[in-house]
Amino acid sequence: MIKHALRSFLILMTVALFVPGPALAGGADIAGSYAVAGWDPGSDPSGPKDYEGTVGLTAWGEAWKYRGEMDGHVYVGVGFFDESAGTLSLSFTSEDGSEAGVTVLKATGDGFSGKWVFAGVGNGLTGREIWTRAR
């Protein structure tokens, strides 16, 4: 049942990528590398971080490709940046396909901050992340 729900979720996210949408106004420059500090679902984000890593964003037509490495795990995905709202929305999966989910981040002065959730596990609890542009 979880595999079917996960497969349906990933198919919907993939189809959404091919629905025509407006081009990025002004060509937002969010491409690049970011350092990540994160908290697992259910953790207190005011406490010590649960993990850290790096993320790379690469322009892909009107969308973005994502590749992240967190504590020895590699995640890849695709998503959209809504420049007018300053919101980056990404679907992700672990490189081995065992984990998948969605991340929604709000642009900050030097990166992004927001929530993520796994699909099919974790009882819908959200994790938190802060991305800081690598210099």
UniProtKB/TrEMBL annotation:
The signal peptide stretch is 1-25
Superkingdom, according to UniProt? Bacteria
Which keywords does this Swiss-Prot/TrEMBL entry list?
Answer: Signal
What name is this protein filed under?
A: Uncharacterized protein
Q: Which organism is it from?
A: Pseudodesulfovibrio alkaliphilus
The opening ranks of the lineage are: Bacteria, Pseudomonadati, Thermodesulfobacteriota, Desulfovibrionia, Desulfovibrionales
